[in-house]
Design a protein that fits this description.
This protein has 318 residues and is an alpha/beta fold. It is built from 14 helices and eleven strands. 38% of the residues are buried.
């Protein structure tokens, strides 16, 4: 299985979303690495449009949930309904039983609803009452959040953030890209149809995942990945400034995510093995939401991306 098999899907997303290459690559990497994606960006930057385009090109069920403060856990996982004709309770599955779930503005829901996502995202199953239900083999949560709006929002718990394989930050389009967006919107108003490609079958996707997982990762690079994650926990061994910035380091999930996503990145690039460049390319998206800054760093305007950039420059490449 080669990366060319993903080109129809990539082209379809590109026909709906102008630019945002980092977002498109992030979605494809999470798809190949069997993980979930958190997308952060200002309103109107095509986050939802990109997820819709991805779902159109995949074989499977898609469901969008608008997260609000009054959302209940049962609105996600489903509930038991009493059937009078059968005189018994019957489970009605919720949106989490779909293959692709768009959790729009995920930080608007309360902690109780966030907790309902933990089991589904971490263990691919849902427990309702005394019964546990398995989720489909293809299950992916793509969540969006607004980084600046605070009214009516809740900060995502660290346990919830750690369940996301990657966090991608979406930026504003360039001048040329915004001109293309105008043209695309004009075509849409003129009812110019964009025909989606033949959906990528789940069996093909699973074969791609196996090909990506088989990409060679040198044991020296395994140690490099562990060194990067360990440096977030013991930054004082590398740099006093970094130690002053970092409050909490990344969990072992970050180690696993770096290895899986580096293989997926190499496979997408058409390479036969993982290089240090692949690891460094995906490291910010893996570590961004797993490293906590100190209050001192936040007061100085330091961001997690600044910390990760310093980290990559200090940890020796094998």
């Amino acid at each position: 299985m080669t990366p060319q098999a993903l080109e129809p899907l990539r082209k379809h997303i590109g026909s709906r979303v102008i630019g945002q290459q980092n977002l498109v690559d992030g979605m494809l990497i999470c798809l190949l690495a069997d993980g979930h994606l958190l997308v952060e960006g200002m309103p109107g930057l095509a986050k939802t449009t990109a997820v819709n385009a991805l779902s159109e090109g995949l074989e499977g069920d898609f469901h969008r949930v608008q997260f609000t403060p009054d959302l209940l856990p049962s609105d996600l996982v489903g509930t038991d309904i009493y059937r009078h004709e059968k005189a018994e309770f019957e489970f009605r599955p919720g949106p989490l039983f779909h293959n692709i779930l768009l959790a729009d503005e995920v930080n608007r829901a309360s902690a109780k609803v966030q907790a309902a996502l933990l089991e589904a995202m971490g263990e691919r199953q849902i427990t309702v009452g005394q019964k546990t239900y398995q989720l489909p083999e293809l299950f992916m949560v793509l969540a969006t959040q607004n980084p600046v709006e605070q009214e009516g929002t809740y900060q995502l718990p660290e346990a919830q953030l750690d369940r996301f394989l990657m966090q991608v930050v979406v930026s504003y389009p360039t001048h040329a890209e915004e001109l293309e967006i105008l043209e695309l919107d004009h075509n849409r108003q003129q009812a110019v149809e964009i025909n989606p490609p033949e959906p990528l079958t789940q069996n093909t996707l699973f074969a791609m995942r196996k090909s990506a997982a088989d990409i060679f990762l040198d044991p020296k690079l395994n140690r490099y990945i562990v060194d990067l994650v360990q440096a977030t926990r013991k930054p004082e061994l590398y740099d006093k400034e970094m130690a002053r910035w970092c409050r909490f380091g990344a969990s072992p999930r970050a180690t696993l995510a770096l290895a899986r996503c580096a293989r997926a990145r190499a496979w997408l690039d058409g390479d036969e093995f993982v290089s240090p460049g692949h690891i460094q390319k995906i490291a910010p998206d893996i570590l961004r939401h797993r490293v906590l800054l100190s209050f001192e760093a936040e007061a100085e305007g330091i961001t997690t991306d600044d910390l990760i950039e310093r980290l990559l420059s200090l940890v020796a490449i094998p």
